[in-house]
Amino acid sequence: MSKALIPALTGLSAAGIGGGIYLAHKNSERPAPEKKTIRDRLQKAKFKIPTNDDNHWASIKAAYNNVKSHSDKVFSTSTSEVGEEDLKRLCEEALEKDEGDTSYDKAKRWCVVTTTISSYLKELGINALPTDDSKNEKQNEWTKLAGEYSASNNKISGVDSLNGDAWKNLRSECKKLGDKKNYDDDFDTSFESSKIWCVDR
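Request: output the structure for the sequence above.
Response:
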């Protein structure tokens, strides 16, 4: 090999090593992606997390204890009364888990400020149709929706048809859906039905 080439090749090797070190250093400076938690996911979905001294805990605790023996509904089954502090601790643990953790649905039941479907729709900026049966507000809109109901495959659970005054019956069903709370078993399915049949398009 030519002696003239040796320094040049050495220089190239050094440059390659130096470049590798530089890239490795730059990569090490890149911040790790921020962990997204169940708390983040709930807040993004417009649910509110209660503070430790929030008076919502009393009613949440009462609802929790009604189903405390059902493993699919609570964080941990119990034969004794679950206190507020115990529930707060369970929620704090769940809220800090990864956003994709299976605890999400339970956290949505027990670790947010209790809300109804009608209130949640409003929080999302969705206008629910009025359900006051003492008035005939938005009758045209209700009538239009009721007319679409029979041919639809996306019916409200347990309501195969709207008999009699169809629009009034639909309004009545929507009022029931609107009163569902986030810890009710059928909150999610009721919410989806509400978005189809109970809102102003």
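Residues 1-30 form one domain.
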